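Tokens in:
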């Protein structure tokens, strides 16, 4: 698809919403405020303040707007609300479930798979997802902030088998347009790097982050750019997200989705069918459906393997193949994601 550059109006009077950085600074971090915004009462939840202390509630208003008021079981709310089950210690669950720490080569650079490396560009996210596999990750010691870029770039330069760099986090799109431009420019200067992949939840939790400046920077890159978004439920994809994703699509950015299969949120066949349809309508292909990573504090979200395999079979009966995501598990030490039917 030809790449389209978006022209920013010199003085746009149409967009009256606060900028994305202001929205980011106004995320809700107090449970009482979240409940008040949603007309819910504390007794609706088995809330646990220690769970919240360990991994603080964080949710932007743009995401809260998509949660049904008065519904304590809303699938978007359950992804962000700290609950008492998180405090149960579960055998087989740990704080580094996919072996990130042993794949660390320079601060914040993980080299697990042939031909690609992953950069933890920041420890910050716009939202805190309770099931996050990096909820215990020691970001202070393990991130490739600007000061560590030189080491990461040097590592990539000396290994010409590396064709692809994945920007991850945290969420790489919380970095400013200027910082991202600087980092991408450095990656573009390495001849053997041909692909740039960004993993971000911002297109569905803070769609105003998809600025014209960002879209244009990605569009003019000499690298083949792919953005892997992270939506778990069709309700996360409404008109602002469709508009943001449309800009990226129009600029020739490949758009894929990875979701996590979550008990109580998207384990029913209709949830998955609706998600695939909503993604495709927004120009995004379903890529992976991850079995839950066994991270301590998230065991209550787990869906049994047999049930997950049945779910995929049902999806295959109802959808064309390109709308059925690959059901996979990431296993520490493996050289790629493991298909669930091989587990
Ligand atoms: S946005 Fe991604 S990295 Fe951040 S908390 Fe959610 S799942 Fe984890």
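Residues out:
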């Amino acid at each position: 698809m030809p790449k389209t550059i978006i022209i920013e109006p010199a003085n746009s009077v149409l967009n009256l919403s606060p900028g994305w950085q202001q929205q980011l600074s106004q995320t809700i971090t107090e449970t009482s405020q979240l409940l008040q915004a949603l007309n819910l009462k504390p007794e609706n939840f088995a809330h646990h303040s220690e769970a919240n202390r360990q991994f603080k509630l964080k949710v932007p208003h743009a995401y809260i707007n998509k949660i049904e008021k008065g519904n304590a079981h809303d699938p978007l709310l359950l992804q962000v609300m700290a609950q008492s089950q998180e405090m149960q210690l579960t055998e087989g669950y740990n704080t580094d479930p996919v072996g990130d720490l042993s794949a660390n080569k320079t601060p914040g650079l993980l080299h697990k798979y042939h031909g690609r490396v992953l950069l933890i560009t920041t420890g910050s996210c716009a939202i805190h997802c309770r099931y996050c596999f990096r909820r215990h990750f020691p970001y202070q010691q393990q991130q490739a902030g600007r000061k560590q870029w030189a080491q990461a770039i040097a590592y990539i330069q000396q290994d010409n088998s590396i064709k692809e760099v994945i920007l991850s986090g945290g969420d790489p799109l919380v970095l400013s347009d200027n910082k991202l431009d600087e980092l991408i420019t450095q990656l573009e200067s390495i001849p053997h790097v041909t692909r740039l992949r960004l993993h971000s939840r911002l297109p569905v939790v803070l769609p105003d982050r998809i600025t014209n400046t960002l879209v244009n920077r990605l569009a003019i890159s000499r690298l083949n750019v792919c953005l892997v978004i992270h939506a778990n439920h069709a309700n996360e994809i409404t008109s602002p997200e469709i508009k943001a994703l449309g800009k990226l699509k129009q600029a020739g950015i490949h758009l894929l989705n990875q979701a996590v299969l979550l008990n109580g949120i998207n384990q029913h066949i209709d949830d998955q069918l609706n998600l695939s349809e909503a993604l495709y309508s927004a120009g995004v292909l379903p890529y992976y459906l991850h079995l839950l990573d066994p991270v301590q504090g998230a065991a209550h979200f787990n869906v049994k393997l047999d049930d997950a395999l049945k779910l995929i079979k049902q999806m295959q009966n109802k959808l064309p193949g390109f709308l059925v995501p690959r059901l996979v598990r990431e296993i520490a030490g493996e050289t790629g994601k493991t298909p669930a039917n091989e587990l």
